[in-house]
C-alpha cells in the first residue's frame, strides 16, 4: 500500500490461510494478500508449524507495505495451544483447535461434573481442542514441553509477541475456558478444577483493553479480538439480539447479548468483548465448509459446480439426509458430543452427486439453525465466510433458516480487526459504512415451510445419533 492517503490494515491469521487486507478510510478494500499455511493431521491430532504461520504473516505485511497506513489490527483463529519460550519461539508445534486427542479428558470431565462446573462458572463449554483440555493432555503426556515453555498462547498472541515482543492475550481469546466473564480476569478456581494450578504461570496476561505496540517500521498494531468477535464487529453485529453466521471451516453462530445466562445445556461460550457487560453468545460448531469439501473431494466435484448441482435436485435431495458431524473431535455446539460422527441415510444406487451435495448443504443449514436458536437470535442475521461465494447455497440458507440474511462479503475478520483497532486508538470510523451488506437474500415461503418440517426431522435423527454415540 503506497502513497500519502491514510489507510488501515487488518491481519487475519486463519487456520489454513493467512490474509492481510488494506482498507481506505471509508472501508473500501484496496488490496488483499494471502498465503496458505499447512495443517498436519494424523490419528486425531491436528498441528501447525508456528514458524510457517509467522512467516506467512510477515510475507503478507511486507507485500502490502506500510506507507500511508495509520495502524493495523490483528486477529486470528481461536483456541488450541501455541507454546513458546521467553523469546516467543516455538517449543513444539502448535496444537490446533481441531485437535481431538484430549477427547478422553473431556469425556471424563463430562462424567465427573467438572465440565458443567466450569461452564456454570465461566459460560464456556469445553471441547477437545480448547486450551483447558489440551494443556491438561500435555501435562499428562508431554510435561517436558510445558516445562520448557514460558507461555501457552493463542494464535494471534503468538504472532503479536513475535512481531512486538509483548506477551499478552485479550478478553475474547481468554474467554475459553479460564476467564471469569464478570471480572474479566482469570478464574483461579477454574484453572485448579482442571488440574492446572501448577501451570497457571503459562497463561498470558489478559490485556483489557487490547494490547498495542509499534513495529520497527513505525506501524502501530493492536492485538485482538480473535476471529469470531472480529467477524461480528466487521459484519456490524453489535446490537443485542442480532446475529452472525460464519460459513467457514467452522460453522460459527454468534448473537450479541447483554445478558449472561449460564442456565440450560452447557454448550458454546460467552465471548467477552471490548465493552464490559456485553458478550457474544457463541455456538461455534465443528461442522462447516470442511464437510462440504469432503463430499466434493469424495465425489470428484469442483467448487465451481456446486451452484448448478444444487439446482439439479429438489429440496430434500430425493430422500438423502446427512447429519454433517465430520470432525474427528465430534461436535461442540450447540451441544458437546466428542464421539458423534456424520451419518448418511436414504442413499441408493439411484443417488446422484447432486443429491449428496444438496443433502450435506441442507444438513449444514439445519446445524446452523440449531446453533442460532440455542444462541438466542431475535434480531437481524448476517452471513459471512467462504460459503457466501455460492449464491445458491445462500438462498438455501435463507430457506432453511426461514428468515432474510444479510450477506457480508470480503475480508470480514480483517475488517473487524481494523474497527477494533480504531476503537483502541481513538480513531472514529463510520462503522455503518464499513459493515454494509453486499446483498440481502429473502427466503422463499414455500421452501421455508418445507424446511421447517425437515428441521424437526433433523433434530429427531440427531437425538438418536447422540444416544448411539454415548453407547
UniProtKB/TrEMBL annotation:
Domain Carbohydrate kinase FGGY C-terminal positions: 247-423
Keywords: Kinase, Transferase
One GO molecular-function entry: kinase activity
InterPro entries assigned: ATPase_NBD, Carb_kinase_FGGY, FGGY_C, FGGY_Carb_Kinase, FGGY_N
Family assignment from sequence similarity: Belongs to the FGGY kinase family.
SUPFAM superfamilies listed in its UniProt record: Actin-like ATPase domain
Protein's recorded name: Xylulokinase
Residue ranges of domain Carbohydrate kinase FGGY N-terminal in the record: 8-205
GO biological process per UniProt: carbohydrate metabolic process
Superkingdom of origin organism: Bacteria
Pfam families (UniProt xref): FGGY_C, FGGY_N
Coiled-coil ranges from the UniProt annotation: none
